[in-house]
Amino acid sequence: MHLKKNGVFSRSASAQRRNHSRVLIIGAGASGYAAASRLMENGFYDLTVLEAEPRIGGRVNTVRFAENIVELGAEWVHGEVGNVVYEMAEPLELLGHNAAKRDFNSHMDFVWSGGALAERAEIELLLNTSQAIRDAVDVDPALASYTGSYGEFFLDKFNQKLMALERRPPAELVDRFLGWFEKATGFYDGSDTWFNTSGRGLLHYRECEGDLAITWKRGGYRTVFDLLTKRFPNPSQELPVRRRVLLNSEVAVIRWAEREATSRPKPPIVVELSNGARYTADLVLVTVSLGVLKHSADTLFDPPLPQRKMNAVRNLGFGQVNKLFMYFSDPWWPSGLSGYSVLVTEDDLEAFKRKYPQYGSMGHWVHGLSGFYIDQHKPSVVLFDWIVGEPARVMERYSDYQIMMGCKDWLDMFLGQNFTIPTPIGFTRSMWWTNKHFKGSYSYRSLDSDRADAWAAHLAEPILDRDGEPAVLFAGEATHDYYYSTVHGAIESGWREADRILGSLK
Questions:
Q1: pTM of the model
Q2: Calpha distance 401→364 (Å, rounded)
Q3: Angle, to 10 degrees, between the axis of helix 307-315 and the axis of helix 290-300?
Q4: Non-local CB neighbours of 122 within 8 Å, separated by 6+ positions
């Protein structure tokens, strides 16, 4: 029994043995850190956090670049009302409402290969039509009973609106714009294609009211870990979570053998690492990504996970979104521009393949580029783009130099007749797919989720021992019913499981 002495949970004699903790947390991302912080806030310190990476943060990864920072993972604070990140950071004046981001589309040009710009009025018509459909998703009564994909739903609505126009944009422009808009949708939803995203599944997601593109004034998203542990604004009040984190500690197997109801004391759960180390605990909180569970759950848990949980692991969607950043010594684009979106034809792709066969030797990825946009942290020198799905996975097979030069050649194809495009002086990117500690970016609701009746609540269910008490618990953005794919959802899930642990220990 874990007794509370002077308001603080005290370590029992058995817990003082080497490599034993009452609670083991697997993963030092937003949910794992949030859980550890909540436990310590309530006087519980008998915990260890095992992190496979050589850093804390998980899918929050703020890095130095171009004399500033870029976010290789989470970037924006999405909304204000009910967003726990906003509630922690805004009173401390750490956040900025980025007017340039809100006006992003109005300062963006759409360009054909060869440098011709699409007619602005026609682009605005297509953008406004598309965004109106997207914005109305959560209030559209037809979606609740819809059984198809979001792509089918969107195109149906789009074509209806287009047919009602007296003057329609050229068919080629409409077709190429829709190709671009599908990519842009993928950046938000994470799905390889909007034909795999569940239409009615979008109703599960809940947006926080307010500005959806809030940025950090300084320090980047990694600042959220200082807020969780109270290191900011007063370091003297810091909760010692960091001291309980063991980096480079990749978990190989969690042995959670069912415990006999009559067994007292209960045998501990055994967690074995890839390096041969062995840890034991009374409770284990798993916060690894859904991507890791999809690729490793069969071998990670002994005995295997219950059928309903494995159904959720296999059928909830988990997407692949990467970012890439190019650093130039000087801007070569007009001031006031937010970036260029490219209108790509099949002829463009074939021409690029013929001219630059080296970029397709292991599979083509350039067709996944939607354009190049000016990073708001350094608007004078950095261009970035998102890339989603299979092209994002293929991109990770190539070296940084190959990707950088491929992006430059792609830029030349679309803008080389208008500008002299220099070779970038710096390049960085995310690589979430090939990193076995993530295996992707964030979760979404897929058609498979609908067919299999797979829900985040199933993923969040704890594994109980034979006494009906929690043994292995689960947190992470994919376990949140309606804030999945977000940092605030990950944090809330960590707090949820910390509260469950505290209730169990009582």
A1: 0.94
A2: 16
A3: 140
A4: 169, 170, 173
Residue from 449, 161, 474, 488 nearest 287 by CA: 474
Report the distance separating Cα 207 and Cα 307, nearest Å.
Answer: 31
Q: What is the pLDDT of residues 221-266, one digit of tens each?
A: 999 999 999 999 999 999 999 999 999 999 999 999 755 555 567 7
Give CA–CA dist 246/56, Å, rounded.
Answer: 10
For 465-483, give the DSSP string: -TTS-EEEEE-SGGG-SSS
Calpha distance 326→346 (Å, rounded) = 26
Q: What CA–CA distance (Å, rounded) separates 297 from 478?
A: 15
Helix then strand then coil, in percent of the chain rounded to 5, is 40, 20, 40
The whole-angstrom separation of Cα 414 and Cα 59 is: 32
Q: Which residues does 195 contact at the CB level (< 8 Å), separation at least 6?
A: 149, 151, 152
Q: Do residues 95 and 89 make contact, with C-beta atoms less than 8 angstroms apart?
A: yes
Q: What is the 8-class DSSP label of residue 454?
A: -
Tell which phi-psi region holds residue 165, choosing left (phi > 0), alpha (psi between -120 and 50) or beta: beta
C-alpha distances out from residue 60 to 20, 41, 101, Å = 29, 23, 20
Question: What digits encode the pLDDT tens for the residues 331-381?
Answer: 999 988 999 999 999 999 999 999 999 998 888 899 999 999 998 766 568
The alpha carbon dihedral of 407, 411, 416, 422 has a sign of negative
Tracing tokens 């990467």 back to the chain, one arrives at 322
| Contacts of residue 27, Cβ cutoff 8 Å, sequence gap at least 6 | 49, 50, 51, 52, 58, 286, 287, 288, 476
Place of tokens 């077709």: 175
